[in-house]
Amino acid sequence: MSKKKILIFGGGISGLTVAHECIQQGFEVHLYEKKKYCGGKAFGLKNEDGLHIEHSIRVYGSSYHHLFQTLREIPTTNGKSVFDHLTGLPGVILASWENPSRNQLLPTAYATPKIRKLLVLLRILRSWHITTREAIQFIRLAMDFAIRSDARKARLYSQKSFAEYARLDAYSEAFRQFLTALLDITVAAKPYASADVILPLLNRILLPGTVAGISSSMNVMNGPTNERFIDPWVTYLKSLGVQFHMTSSLDEVVIEADQVTRVVVNQTDVTEADAFVLALPYQHVTRLVPSLHLPKKNHREWSFSYQFYLRDVPPDLVTRQTFNLVLDSPWKLVYCIESEPLWKNVDFRPDVRGILSVTLSNVDTPGLLTHKPLHACTDHEVQAELLHQIGFTYPELILESRLDATVAYLPEATYQQRQAEFIGWDSFPPNEHGYRWLTDSTLFIPEATDGSAISVETNLPNLFLAGEFIYTSYRIPTMEQANESGKLCTASICRYFGRSYDKAGQKRPEPPFRSLRRIDQWLHRR
């Protein structure tokens, strides 16, 4: 009996997860990726100049239950796995460009007593002129998700934005700015995001879970993402029999008799299969198969990074080898110094000793130097703004800089000539300099006003979806959500072919205060 053939389009975390799970279920698996490399938004590559480029500073939180399971299954060397490449951070620095005396480390290491973490958080809140009453309110909001029963959550959070649920208008400007900045920087989320998205995030900040094998609730790879994570994964999948088709662009999905019968790749290659998976960004899925009638995603957020390559890393910058959240930066910046000892045994170019990686999450607010939003600035102006907003005082150490590969800054004439390359990209109109900013890494944060949740299953029985826009138990668009969506997608494929899937019932570990949730459930029923 021949194997059922599965075609997966998209080599990001969700597509690789579907390939990982399907090949283990005995399917014939083909993965198609438009680029020369896999990883999607989680890429980290080395360019032709020998410089490492990352899409963004990438955190692996202790709540990444499904992703960590996958990392443990990807072998590397000496009997170890990709999971062993994780390095725990001592904490995150909540920083200020305006008043550096506010800069404080919020501990995230498991070894730090919880009471000390709470006291440090309260001290940080006070330094941002947040009253004791509002500090307690912040803690209450973080606890809210942990102590409510599912039934009460559904009633209280349904169709409400976080701003509405928390009644942010009733609080001081300092409190609103602090909370808004924290959300914007961590996940590019705004107060209009759904309450059932933001409240779990606050809960994880205050009450992070613990995971065996790591030492902190905040972790990073100990080197470039592709080198330490994606490339070993692709190598492993190839060894299992997954067939990769790189530089392969999906141009058409052919539908006949309410089924997908074939696809057209690279304009001319027609391929048939038993089932098809679109593990592509939301905007590409809706463009390729408009008949799916997916609910609209109204608000798009940009988040991307610049890398500045340093000829030296002074001692005071070594202490910045963690996430530095510059809460009062207009462009909502987070930065990290990537060098030894955080990155271990990395093959840097001989003249490079480390990388200053800066990720921004707000392209609409005017900057401090130019007084213009990012999309109105030149590439040079953006770099100057980033360095100014993080308070970087070593410009003489910068050898070169590079823009995230998922973003482009092009003359309008060039864009018009190459427009076919940027189908599905989000863009701003040309600025006064005649240049246009574009991105292929748009984030869609779930809102209270969003329509029905998007499932892995579609109205075409042999077409399945996976990606950050899929409704999962982890609502924030992250690697964890993408990975979980890939497993949900595999479960649906197995059901379609009448097979069992032993990971379909895996559930996320329960947060603390289970007894309180049971009491709340009993009270809610009365």
From TrEMBL:
GO MF terms held by the record: FAD binding; oleate hydratase activity; oxidoreductase activity
* InterPro entries (UniProt xref): FAD/NAD-bd_sf, Oleate_hydratase, Zeta_carotene_desat/Oxidored
Which top-level group of life is the source organism from?
A: Bacteria
Record-level GO BP terms = fatty acid metabolic process
Q: What is this protein called?
A: FAD-dependent oxidoreductase
